[in-house]
Amino acid sequence: MSLDLMIWLLLFGALLLGVPIFVSLGMATFIALTLSDIPLSIIPLDLYKVSELFPLLAVPAFIFAGALMERGGMAQQIIDVASILVGRFTGGLALATIVGCVFFAAMIGSGPGTTAAMGALMIPSMVRQGYSKDYSAAVCSTGGTLGILIPPSNPMIVYGVIANVSIASLFMAGFIPGFFVGICLMTTSYIIARKRGFKGTDEKYTVSDFFKTCGRNIFALLAPVIILGGIYAGIFTPVEASVVAVVYAFLVGWIINKKLTWKGLWESFNLTNVATGTVLIVVGVSTLFGRFVTMYEVPQRLAKAIMQVSTDPFIVLLMIGGFLFFLGMFMETLATVVIITPVVLPLLKQLGVDPIHFGIILVMTNEIAMLTPPLGVNLFVAMQLSNLSLEKVAKAAFPYILTLIICTIIVMRFPSIVLFLPNLFGSF
């Protein structure tokens, strides 16, 4: 057995056994470097380089901002507006949940965070209105996946750092696919609701009611405009935007809504510390893993093997997408991004695939991974909120998984869906 094959088996074996990703990556890379001529002194040097990756500063800030927004009442305000927009349609509360996920995703960049915020509010509401628990949990878990596709997105930030791609361009590229997927999920919810007889709300709203509700909740609605508008207008960078999001969320939750408490603030700090530590240590070890990938010419050999099958970029993307679908059942989003990117991106560049296009595809496959057992993290969040078994939530989410797969294939086939906005605004 060759050394590089042994290292790969060790890595994936450790991950399947539940060993933390940073330990699995570090252990496999350390053994590879020990058995090579590369001095081990590069380990502390590469880990230190992580502190110089300025774009990563946006990750803890967006996580903190999302926690403050949830505890400061902004999630509820978004739901209030969404309910007026679509609440009266068949399956109206489900449609309002997905619309709420779209808006909340545009503020925090986290899939599980979006699921938790929307699910805590909407699962009890839907159940009270006669919706089944499994349907309610499935809607919240699938709507929550938009948290990593609609910018800002924490996985996009990590991918941008590893792939050396403009994070602002990635954010811009996620808009059209994000709204496209959101509409498709709403359509799926509507069809299921119609089949199962889930009606909308009986409350009647006028245009005046809508504008009054928007006026009361204007600060929550302005958050995506300020955060993303500032980035695209060149007022501040993604990192600066993340800090603006923190300040804005604190001021709205503490002073305007008056729902952010000292306890909520402390919980937000704790959540941010844990999540940030996970991200930074994984990215740090992934730089070492990149040494192993480069040392054993993994991208070159993978390119040779795949190109013997096909050189059509769409076929290659389908093959990689199928592999990512399988991998996502056992690995969480960050692990997939840091392991797969340095391996397949050189091959895709060779075939003429734009790195921004692949970045969005990678995020979309990770959306599916959030819904596929045994690891689907959004399923676990929805399961806890609904007090249902994993099997019931996963079964109810299956139609949405099919919808996400179809959307991903469409985006693979038509790169302009992703690249239209970056190309349009990049020319200015």
Key structural traits:
428 residues, mainly alpha
Whole-number total of structural domains: 1
Kindly state the percentage of residues in helix.
over 70%
The backbone outline, from C-alpha atoms, is: globular
- Total number of strands: 0
Order of helices and strands: HHHHHHHHHHHHHHHHHHHHHH
Q: Structural class, from secondary structure content?
A: mainly alpha
Largest β sheet strand count, sense and barrel closure: none
Q: How many angstroms separate the termini?
A: 54 Å
Total helical elements: 22
Quaternary organisation: single chain
Which stretches are low in confidence, meaning pLDDT under 50 for 5 or more residues running?
none
Q: What is the residue-averaged pLDDT?
A: 82
Strand content: under 5%
Using only C-alpha atoms, the radius of gyration works out to 22 Å
